[in-house]
Amino acid sequence: MTVKRWEDMDEWESLAHRLRWAGHEARDVENLVHLVGAQKAGARVIERIEQKLAEHNIGHLPTKLPTDSTRRVLLYSKEHGGIGHVLSLIHDLALQDPADEQNATVHQLDELLKGITSSLLNSRLRAEVR
User: Fold this and answer.
1) Per residue, what are the HEC states of the chain?
2) What is the pLDDT of residues 78-89, one digit of tens each?
3) CB count, 10 Å around CB of 5?
4) What pTM did the predictor assign?
């Protein structure tokens, strides 16, 4: 596997790389508009942004990007094993048809959230004991 040097990455690859490491990041829609070389966030520009994000395995919340450039959106790497994975599951559940049987996804998300909650509670208890 060849590793691309940071300086050889385009802006989309750089964003994907940062998200794979950090898991998530909030951005203004305006920033994404400029990344696709546009000036204003119209419907076609938003489509291009969503396509570029998908090409780089980047998810986003809300599930439909707004055309208001001042709005902030949450981007996440679908390849991140931690919070990116949790956000990806939430995104998938938000889009699913209620008639679809996605018990496995609900169960997986429930278990992940229980683990996070348990970890937070344990941290609080340890802090109170000190």
Assistant:
1) CCCCCHHHCCHHHHHHHHHHHHCEEEEEHHHHHHHCCCCCCCHHHHHHHHHHHHHCCEEEECCCCCCCCCCEEEEEECCCCCHHHHHHHHHHHHHCCCCCCCHHHHHHHHHHHHHHHHHHHHHHHHHHHC
2) 988 888 888 888
3) 7
4) 0.76
**Rounded Cα distance, 74 and 95, in Å:** 16
**What is d(CA 80, CA 5) in angstroms, rounded to the nearest whole number?**
20
Q: How far is CA 5 from CA 57, 96, 126, in A?
A: 19, 38, 42
pLDDT tens by residue, 71-121 = 999 999 998 888 888 888 888 888 877 777 667 778 888 888 888 888 878
Which two three-digit tokens encode residue 87? 């956000």
- Half-sphere exposure in the Cβ direction for 23 (13 Å, CA): 8
83 token code pair = 């919070």
For residue 64, the one-letter residue type is: K
Residue 50, number of CB atoms within 10 A of its CB = 16
